[in-house]
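Technical note accompanying the year-one report. For the benefit of new consortium partners, we illustrate the data format agreed upon in the data management plan: each record pairs a sequence with a structure-token string. No post-processing was applied to the example shown here.
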Amino acid sequence: MAALATPPPRTGLVVVQALRKKHCAECRSGPVALLVLEEGAPRCLDCADLGHLVFLPRGDTALTRRAREGSSLSAVVVRFNRRRSRYERQGVLVEEAVLARAEERCLADAEVRRRRRTRDARRRAAEDVRFTDAFAAEILRLFPACPAERAREVAAHASVRGSGRVGRSAAGRALTEMAVTSAVIASVRHVDTPYDRLLMSGTPRYEARRRIAGVVETRLREWRTAG
């Protein structure tokens, strides 16, 4: 029987995932997928008194921690990586009943987190609605002749969370006149002028802005005039 490389020393019991077909040196059963090395000889989990444990693959840190903490007997499962010439952790063996309880606790935690995310999403949505309303109201204060629906569209576009637009800047959140006006100018530029077509035709950005500056200024004067 070919000798197995000895896994590195670890705290607690270590079980090896066999890369080659191995038989138990004690009961001769096999080939075995998981084995324990005792005095250099492979033994199956039953002969090593670990047969009642179940395998929990790595990947879920919280589940692994809870299962190991609750299990009176557990073992780390490793496999030899030939390319890296080292043993790497694959998971743990724990008591089945303890694993079931750990899974229930993790599911309960996941449900709590889901509910919290739902509440947070609702809160942020309500905050966004209030902020968009305030932004639109400030647009109408500065530009009273601007159509209310247009003011709402400008505010909604400028204040999208995570967009990086002017409405989400510090100045925008403070509803400064400069930030609100910048949002209105951007809307006029893209909606009411041939600015986008100029850019698509290859016109440099600064030149395109120069060409449509008069149209933008005219629209802003119209909207600033009440009645």
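Partners are asked to follow this layout when depositing records. Residues 96-142 form the longest helix (47 residues).
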